[in-house]
Write a structure and sequence with these properties.
This protein has helices spanning 3-19, 23-30, 34-45. By secondary structure, it is mainly alpha-helical.
């Protein structure tokens, strides 16, 4: 996975987390690990609320 693909996957995952999608659906679409998704949620989303 190239850098730009990974950045895109993170952006898609961030949007899906905000939209309230399930972890399973996000992991299937973005190919990211649950660990990565939880880090995105903790570092990028939770501070905004």
């Amino acid at each position: 996975m190239g850098i730009s693909e990974k950045d895109h996957a993170y952006e898609v995952a961030k949007k899906m987390i905000i939209d309230g999608e399930s972890w399973d659906k996000i992991m299937e679409e973005t190919k990211l690990r649950l660990k990565d998704l939880k880090r995105i949620q903790k570092e990028e989303i939770t501070p905004h609320f």
